[in-house]
Structures are given as C-alpha cells and as structure tokens.
Design brief:
Blueprint: H1 6-19, H2 21-56, E1 63-68, E2 87-88, H3 93-100, E3 105-120, E4 123-132, H4 138-141, E5 144-147, E6 157-160, H5 162-166, E7 178-183, E8 186-196, H6 208-213, E9 215-219, H7 220-227, E10 236-241, H8 247-258, E11 265-271, H9 272-315, H10 317-325, H11 330-367, H12 375-401, H13 405-410
Parallel strand pairs: 2-11, 4-9, 6-8
Antiparallel strand pairs: 1-10, 1-11, 3-4, 3-7, 3-10, 5-8, 6-9, 7-8
Helix pairs in contact: 2-9, 2-11, 2-12, 9-12, 11-12
Keywords: Cell membrane, Membrane, Transmembrane, Transmembrane helix
GO molecular function, one term: transmembrane transporter activity
Membrane topology: Multi-pass membrane protein
C-alpha cells in the first residue's frame, strides 16, 4: 500500500489552514504569546545580567575592602559561630601599619564616612563626607577636574564631587567658595579647594555615578573634629595589592594578622569580585525564573492547540474516513496530524520570535535597560514552540489514526 508523500501532506495542511483562517489564528495565538514571552523574558534578563556585569567590570579587582563587622555568615575566619555576633572591630593607625606590613600589599587607604548637611548661600542639601589620608588616595587625586587635591597639611579644606558643584545648589560651587557642613547639628566651615570630574552614569540611567558625584572629601584631622566623638576610628581600609592573582592569599593573611589586635571583635575582608560573583549568581536565577514564566504561557498555548486539534479531528471524521478508504495507512494519518501540529508550532514560533525581538528592543529603550537578543533565547523559543505543539497534537493524531474507516464514512 502506497504511503502518502510529504509534499501531499504539506499541501493538505496548507489547504486546511487556508479554509479556516480564524481557527488557525486562534489556535496559534497561545503559542505566539508563549514564544514572545520566552524571548522577551530571556532577552530582558540577559540584558539586565550583562548591564550589571559591565558596570561592575569597571571596579578594581586588585582592591580589598577591610571592614568592621562581618560581611559573611560567620566570623573573621569565615566559619559560622558566635563570632558573628561579636562587637565590630575598632580600627586605628596601628591597624594601618599591620596591613602595610602584609606581603603583597601596595597601598593602604583608611577612610571614615558620614552623612552630613551642606549649607551654601542659605540653601541646604545633603551629601556623603569621607575622611581620607590625602597621600594614600592617588585615584581620587587623578580625578580632580578643577582646583587641586587635598594635602596632608590641609585642615578646613574640602574636595567635592561634580554633582555637588554643578547641580545641588542654584549657584555653582567652585574652588575658593566656602561651605558649611553640619553633623548632628555640629557646624564646621570649609573652603572648597577642588572639584572632581563627573562620573559616568551607569547603563541604567543613574545609581552608581550619582552617589559618587555627591561625595566630598576632607582630611582625617578635619573629620575627627567634625564628628566630635571621644575616639576616632576608621570605618574601612581600601587595600591595594600588587598582584590581583594573589588577592585570596592576601585576604587570608590580612584576617590572620589583624586577629592579634581584634581577637574578640568582628571584621572582614572582601573584594569587588566577591560582590560581583554573588550578584551575578542572583541575576542568573532571575533570568531563568523569567524564562520559566514565559514557558508557563507556552504551556497554556499548548493546551489550547490540543483542544483545537481535537475539534479538528471531529470536524474531519468523514475526510479521514475517505483518506483511509483511498489507501492511506494509520501511520499516514498519525504523521499528517503530527506534522500539522509541528508546522503550526514552527510558524507560530517564528511570528512570536519576531514580535519578541521587537518588544525586547522597545522595553530596553523605554526602561533604559540594555536589551540583549541572544541566539539562546531564539533557539529556545523555536524549540519550545515546536515541541509544545507537537506534544499537544499527539493525542488528537492518535485519535484520528484509530478511527474506523466505515464508521468515519457514515458520520454526518
């Protein structure tokens, strides 16, 4: 018995689609929306992932941040236990010397920060003030756009970010101007000696660059007087290493060496790489969770396809009976209905991908997110679309193939 040719099957399927365009559109709509959702979710998730990654890639991987307290689920040695609840370490100049003596350390920059109120020409605003050792902040020194950087002998001098200079007040704050800072209602006057260059905005339209532009820097001597506390401690050390490949070893040495002075106190040492690794892991989970939401839409579309094809089988009972009577085999009928489902899935998937790419670009443009259309999202969209429709069409195809030819021809 002759088998139906593939060309005949495709022609038969094409005639079926054309004869009832509305039903074909309704049956494919669920798949189109599902594939569109997968492409959009994966593309936006990948764009978010790559955008954040590019922002953090500008951070120095050769800098270790030594902080009081614990940044991990454990004590200074990274192990869980009672150390996590220990009092945060109080860092002083002796800790600076300990860090400078660690082999592989190139520079140690102690910093102490506070949020302050800024007053300029009877207008108040807020900003972030950091006390620094001017000789240890070479990177900041190179970012001065106007005036000069702080010197070790400066007392009531201040260097401000570009945002404070250009945008915070109605009048621009330039080198030579005087501003007043308040910390817990404690006032202190400073002379602006320098303005830092404008920080590049992040790919998300703000955030990192904004906070850096609103920063201000004074010497530790000035910071100590403004805080007016009984004891002055450093809040963090930025430790620059000579070889970034030795960071993990140096962190271990730092933690061990500081233990001599802070045996019962909590402290930790982290790098931008640690933060980046944690963040990227979280974003990766978010990306695939978004794709999962799209897959649910596709599943709903597959159920719709199965229902429509079951109705198609009922509508074509006489047609199937005629084909069987003319020599079509049970396998031919099954193959034809599976092929019809697969073709419908392929066409629907391609339409969904085109709409998904357009929607992803539109979302990226409106939300300020980098939109990343990856081959992975397109392949997954097509694969899921075709597989869903083929699986959804399996039961209707089997039902059509098992029809009795004589009973089918008698059907009204």
């Amino acid at each position: 018995m002759a088998r139906m040719r593939l060309q005949d099957m495709l022609e038969f399927i094409s005639l079926g689609f054309k004869s009832d365009r509305f039903k074909t559109l309704m049956s494919s709509l669920g798949i189109i929306i599902g594939v569109l959702a997968i492409v959009v979710m994966l593309s936006v998730g990948e764009g978010l992932y790559s955008g954040v990654s590019s922002q953090f890639s500008t951070l120095d991987l050769d800098v270790i941040h030594v902080i009081p307290g614990s940044a991990r689920f454990g004590g200074p040695d990274g192990e869980p236990g009672s150390r996590n609840a220990a009092e945060p370490a109080k860092f002083t100049d002796k800790d600076t010397k300990v860090l400078e003596n660690v082999v592989g350390v190139k520079n140690v920059a102690p910093q102490t920060g506070a949020s302050v109120v800024i007053s300029f020409r009877n207008t108040n605003s807020s900003g972030s003030l950091t006390g620094v050792d001017p000789d240890k902040e070479q990177d900041l020194k190179e970012k001065v756009a106007q005036g000069r950087w702080l010197s070790g002998s400066d007392y009531r001098s201040i260097v401000i970010g570009n945002g404070i200079s250009q945008e915070t007040f109605r009048m621009k704050v330039t080198p030579g101007n005087k501003i007043r800072l308040y910390y817990r209602d404690q006032p202190m006057d400073f002379t602006v000696v320098g303005v830092l260059e404008e920080e590049e905005e992040s790919g998300f339209g703000g955030g990192m660059g904004d906070s850096a532009d609103n920063a201000m820097y004074v010497t530790h001597k000035a910071m100590e007087e403004l805080l007016d506390e009984e004891n002055y401690y450093y809040q963090t050390f930025q430790v620059t290493v000579s070889d970034p490949d030795q960071v993990d070893y140096i962190i271990e040495r730092i933690i061990n060496d500081l233990r001599r002075y802070h045996k019962d106190e909590a402290y930790d040492a982290t790098t931008a790489r640690d933060m980046l690794s944690t963040l990227m892991s979280t974003l990766s989970m978010i990306k695939y969770a978004l794709a999962g939401i799209g897959a649910i839409s596709l599943l709903v579309g597959g159920i719709g396809i199965a229902n429509v094809m079951m109705l198609t089988v009922k509508e074509r009972i006489r047609e199937i009976g005629t084909m069987l009577a003319l020599g079509a085999t049970v396998e031919d009928i099954r193959r034809q209905y599976l092929l019809e489902a697969g073709v419908l899935g392929m066409v629907s998937s391609l339409i969904g991908i085109i709409l998904g790419v357009g929607t992803s670009l539109l979302i990226g443009s409106l939300a300020g997110l980098p939109s990343s259309i990856t081959p992975e999202s397109i392949v997954l969209g097509v694969l899921f679309g075709v597989l869903t429709t083929t699986i959804a069409g399996y039961y209707p195809a089997n039902k059509a193939a098992k029809l009795d030819p004589i009973e089918a021809l008698r059907a009204e």
